[in-house]
Amino acid sequence: MTKGLPASYDAPANEWYLWKPSPRLDRSVRVLVTLDPSNYPIGVKDVITGGDLPVVWTNTKYRMLYANMGHGEKVFSDATQNKLFANAVLWLGNSK
Questions:
Q1: In the chain, where are the structural domains located?
Q2: 54, 22 in Cβ contact below 8 A?
Q3: Distance between CA atoms of 28 and 18, rounded to whole angstroms?
Q4: Over the stretch 3-38, which tens digit does the pLDDT of each residue have?
Q5: Neighbour tally for 68: CB within 10 Å
Q6: pTM to 2 decimals?
């Protein structure tokens, strides 16, 4: 899903969520995208000052994807993030 994407990019402003407990604690979860802590504090609605912020992940037991992005008028303003969304739709639609 992240094939062809850069190792990092600047995400548009969004409403991010801090997960407790972290989805990383589930051995079936594979985190694909996370926010860089060097950018804290961040947040549009609530200000996040620290912690682990995975924003895209899949559960290897299922063909599913969670993507935190999707809030605000700037969500589709980044070509890299749009490529991630397109890759995700193609991956989810592939039954192989």
A1: 23-93
A2: yes
A3: 19
A4: 899 998 888 888 888 888 899 999 999 999 998 878
A5: 19
A6: 0.83
Nearest to 22 by CA among 53, 45, 48: 53
For 65-83, the pLDDT digits (tens) are: 999 887 777 888 889 989 9
3-state secondary structure 26-85: CCCEEEEEECCHHHCCECCCCCECCCCCEEEEEECCCCCCEECCCCCCCCCCCHHHHHHH
pLDDT at 96: 64
Among 7, 57, 73, smallest CA distance to 36 is for 7
